[in-house]
Amino acid sequence: MATxxxxxxxxxxxxxxxDDERLVVTLADGREVSAPLEWFPRLRDGSPEQRSAxxxxxxxxGIRWEALDEDVSxxxxxxx
Length: 80
Hints:
By secondary structure, this protein is α+β, with helices and mostly antiparallel strands. It has 3 helices and 6 strands, in the order E-E-E-H-H-E-E-E-H.
């Protein structure tokens, strides 16, 4: 008997914002995920201009801040 394997598609980011306290990521399915900026020292210590200069990588599976040499995966934000 064959068994079916259910594979969820990865959560994808569509938008990012960073303030003085939090990283907030909007996902393609409409959810927002946030994390304390303390978890990301490079972002925490970056200037507002550096924090706003992000780009999506891998079609939205991650976020890159080139000037800060920081990468954040969406999957990592969603893990408990």
